[in-house]
Amino acid sequence: MTAVAAKGPGAPFLHVAVGVVVRQQQVLLSLRASHQHQGGKWEFPGGKVEGAETVLAALGRELQEELAIRIEQASPLMQIRHQYPEREVLLDIWLVEAFSGEPKGMEGQQVAWFDISQLHTLVFPDANQPIVARLQSLFT
Ligand SMILES: Nc1nc2c([nH]c(=O)n2[C@H]2C[C@H](O)[C@@H](COP(=O)(O)OP(=O)(O)OP(=O)(O)O)O2)c(=O)[nH]1
Ligand SMILES: [Mg+2]
């Protein structure tokens, strides 16, 4: 069962597996559909952790479903707890250092590679700012 959205301290939060897929100095992003929560913003691909799944298993499943790639090597990068007005999320963020297949938007979403040095020009969900900062310090 997926944790449901609710407000306030101690309330259930949404556990989200997030993949920072890197290749050379670039990172892969997907555009969230306008009808989604935080729609119209660029995201790191991923999605909700389901049931008893590990975060890495959830990430593998989501990257397969959304991009048709298979993770070959990944390591934990950071966690971010963020309270949106509508819901609280725990982003479990992994660096995906190797993968097989060529990513494509399997759910009709726009996907693109961006130079890490250009990430500051894009609009991300509010929770993501620390990820962008970390990547810029790691890759420059
Ligand atoms: N994937 C992803 N989600 C993010 C990022 N930043 C951020 O705040 N989120 C939030 C937005 C959503 O509230 C939540 C992800 O939930 P979601 O509903 O899109 O997950 P999902 O892919 O399982 O979607 P679905 O199958 O239910 O459509 O995490 C990010 O960089 N990537
Ligand atoms: Mg998703």
From TrEMBL:
Sequence ranges assigned to domain Nudix hydrolase in this UniProt record: 11-139
Keywords: DNA damage, DNA repair, DNA replication, Hydrolase, Magnesium, Metal-binding, Mutator protein
EC number assigned by the record: 3.6.1.55
Cofactors: Mg(2+)
Domain of life: Bacteria
Keyword flag Hydrolase: yes
Pfam family, any one: NUDIX_4
Keyword Ribosomal protein: no
InterPro entries referenced in this protein's UniProt entry, alphabetically: Mutator_MutT (IPR003561), MutT-like (IPR047127), MutY_C (IPR029119), NUDIX_hydrolase-like_dom_sf (IPR015797), NUDIX_hydrolase_dom (IPR000086)
Swiss-Prot/TrEMBL catalytic activity: 8-oxo-GTP + H2O = 8-oxo-GMP + diphosphate + H(+); 8-oxo-dGTP + H2O = 8-oxo-dGMP + diphosphate + H(+)
Family statement: Belongs to the Nudix hydrolase family.
The protein's name in its UniProt record: 8-oxo-dGTP diphosphatase
Source species of the chain: Alkalimonas cellulosilytica
